[in-house]
Amino acid sequence: MKSEHFRFMTRAVVGILFLLSLSGLKGCDYLPVGAVSIAELLSNPTKYDGKEVKVKGVVSEVTRIPLVGIKFYILSDEGRQILVVPKDSIPESKSRVTVVGIFRNIAIVGGESVGPHLEEVKRLDYSL
């Protein structure tokens, strides 16, 4: 009887610890959990406008204009693209990144986004 109670308690504790560890992983930016596709952002600009989102993709184009301090890059995924204004440095072209940023539109006209972009809050680089 005592060993059955001990086994039950052990299983219960292990189960609770497992669930707690999974909830902690949800915030891990390297996991696909919580990522929004670029297509989803561009299809629903009013839903995400001004909100922090996590997007993954490949850097397809990098632009730097040092004289006026302009820099940005284009993030591509599944044939869709979005402009990203970096917080600090610009990643290398063709690098795979996860970007956490604020989705913004210059304007929304008739439900269509004009000038959609991400203002980078955090970027995680990882190799292909």
Word description of this protein:
The protein is of the alpha+beta class. The protein folds into 2 domains: 1-28; 34-126, OB fold (Dihydrolipoamide Acetyltransferase, E2P). It is 27% helix and 41% strand. The protein has helices at 2-25, 38-43, 45-48; strands spanning 52-65, 70-77, 80-85, 96-104, 107-109, 112-114, 117-126. The strands form 2 sheets. Strands 1-2-3-7-4 form a 5-stranded mixed barrel. The chain has a two-stranded antiparallel sheet with strand order 5-6. It starts with a helix and ends with a strand. The mean pLDDT is 82.
In brief:
With 128 residues, this protein is an alpha+beta fold. The chain is built from three helices and seven strands, in the order αααβββββββ. It has two domains: 1-28; 34-126, OB fold (Dihydrolipoamide Acetyltransferase, E2P), CATH 2.40.50.140.
Sequence-ordered SSE layout with sheet pairings:
Elements: H1 2-25, H2 38-43, H3 45-48, E1 52-65, E2 70-77, E3 80-85, E4 96-104, E5 107-109, E6 112-114, E7 117-126
Parallel strand pairs: 3-7
Antiparallel strand pairs: 1-2, 1-4, 2-3, 4-7, 5-6
CATH class of the largest domain: Mainly Beta
C-alpha geometry: elongated
N-to-C order of helices and strands: HHHEEEEEEE
Helix proportion of residues, in percent?
25-40%
Stated plainly, the CATH topology of the largest domain is called OB fold (Dihydrolipoamide Acetyltransferase, E2P)
The tally of strands reads 7
Major β-sheet, in short? 5 strands, mixed, barrel
